[in-house]
Each structure stands twice: as structure tokens, then as C-alpha cells.
Amino acid sequence: MWTSLGSGVVLAAATVLAVPLLSANVFDSGNTELAADVRTPEFELPPLIIEELPSEEPEEELVEEEEEEEEKKEEERRPADPPAAPPPAAPPVVVEEEKQADPPAEKEEKKNDPPAEPKNEDPPAPYITRGNVQIKGLDGKCLDVANSRTDNGTPATLFDCNGSNAQKWNFWSDGTLRAMGNCLSLVGAKTSDGTLLHMWDCTGNATQRWAVSPNNDIVNISADKCLDVPWADSSSGIQLQIAICSGNPAQKWTISG
């Protein structure tokens, strides 16, 4: 505090102390007149200059400035932050190509394709390919159903031609040879040489299928043997058989009607 009062206070104090000393010197020398005439001068004290103490705020501001400078220096010393990673690239946009229509040439080819075969359809029903025919064999006699019977097992014979229904035969699309509502069949469905023939219900069995050869043979397809007159005996009523095709007159037949 005293230091801050400054030089003005020191000067004022020195002046006050000097006045009594001067007076004392005058009186001690015996010069009373001079002493009498000497009047204590009136001194005007210089104005007391009191310097205001600096407030604490500048010091605080200095401290703050120093702190800010230190912070700036620390920031300068710090390594620079790595650059921020770039944002992930957006997935590529896939543009689907429009399907082009088939060229007209291909469409025309498809139109020309054969129609698909029907699936799981029942085969067509058999039908007569040649009907009400007379079949003549050895000595001009006819293939006959014995006694015009219609029951299963009736023998198939060679008999005089008489134009009866027992001698009217029908060839069917399924390969059967029919008369009196039944099919010409092999006894026991055997295919061996010499197997006799009879009439039986049409069952679709392979042994009931027949074919006419260009040489006028009537061939059983399953047995691959020919319709035959046993021992070439042309007696009326003789039961017919199948035998190995040999080309003899007992295996030749003429179909008419």
C-alpha cells in the first residue's frame, strides 16, 4: 500500500519535517528579530495523489490469455486428426433388361410343329375292317362254326359252304377274326404245331390275332403259324388247326364277299 502512494507522499512528509528545523535554527542563533520576523510560512501541501491499485481483473485476463496461448500451442503440438473415412459407396443400380419377344420366324416354326400326342387316353375301340366275308379252303369248303353255336369252346371246322351266319366272318382292326359274336382262338392259348382251333370270347389275348399274307395264308400272329386242314383231310366237320407254314394247298384260303 505504501509503495503505491508514490513520490507525492514522501515530498509532503519531508516538507513538514523541514519547517520546525528551520525555526529552531533561527531561534538558536540569537537573532530574535529575525526570529520574530520570521513567520512560519504557510505551505500548501501538494495534493495527495493516490494511485489506484490495479484491479485483479487484468491479472485474470492475462492468466486467461496465457491459458489460451498454452492451449493453442498444445493444439499445434497435437498430431492432425486422420481424414474422415469417405461414406460407403451406394450399391450399383441394376437395370433389368426387357425380354424381347421371340422373332416371328420362331413363332411360325412353333406353329408348324406337330401336335402333341394325347396322353393317358384309351386306345380307340376296335372296328370291322372287312365284314361278312366267306372264307373257302381245301376242295372249296368253307371255314365254319360247328352247328352255329355261340358258346365258348365250339370247334372251328371245315364244312360245305351254305351261306349261313356260321360261315360269315369279320376282320377287325385289332387283328381278330370273328363269327357268331366270338373270336377264332387257339385251344388253351397254345402256340405249338398242331394246336386245334375253337371259338371263344374276344379277350384281346395275342393268340386271337390273325393276318392274311400275300400268299393267301391266314397266319396266327402270336404263334407265327398258318391256319391248316389236318392231314389235308377235306371231310365236312373236321376241326381245323395251326401248323408250320409250308405253302401246301391245305393252308391256302380265298376270301370273298
Helices and strands in order:
Elements: H1 2-5, H2 7-28, H3 32-37, H4 56-77, H5 104-112, E1 128-136, E2 142-145, E3 154-159, E4 169-172, E5 177-179, E6 182-186, E7 197-200, E8 210-212, E9 218-220, E10 225-228, E11 238-239, E12 241-243, E13 254-256
Antiparallel strand pairs: 1-4, 1-13, 2-3, 3-7, 3-11, 4-5, 5-6, 6-7, 8-9, 9-10, 10-12
Any overview of this molecule?
With 257 residues, the chain is an alpha+beta fold. It has two domains: 2-73, no CATH class; 128-256, Trefoil (Acidic Fibroblast Growth Factor, subunit A). It is built from five helices and 13 strands. A hairpin with a 2-residue loop joins strand 5 and strand 6 (182-186). The longest helix is centred in the N-terminal third of the chain and has 22 residues, at 7-28. The termini are far apart. Residues 1-38 have low confidence and may be disordered. Residues 46-131 are annotated as: Disordered.
Task: Summarize this structure as a short list of keywords or feature phrases.
single chain, 257 residues, alpha+beta, Trefoil (Acidic Fibroblast Growth Factor, subunit A), 2 domains, nine-stranded antiparallel beta sheet, four-stranded antiparallel beta sheet, 5 helices, 25% helix, rod-shaped, disordered N terminus
Give a short account of the largest sheet.
Answer: 9 strands, antiparallel
Mean of all residue-level pLDDT scores: 78
C-alpha geometry: rod-shaped
Q: What is the count of distinct domains?
A: 2
Keywords: Hydrolase
Domain Ricin B lectin: 129-256
Biased composition (Pro residues): 81-91
Biased composition (Acidic residues): 53-73
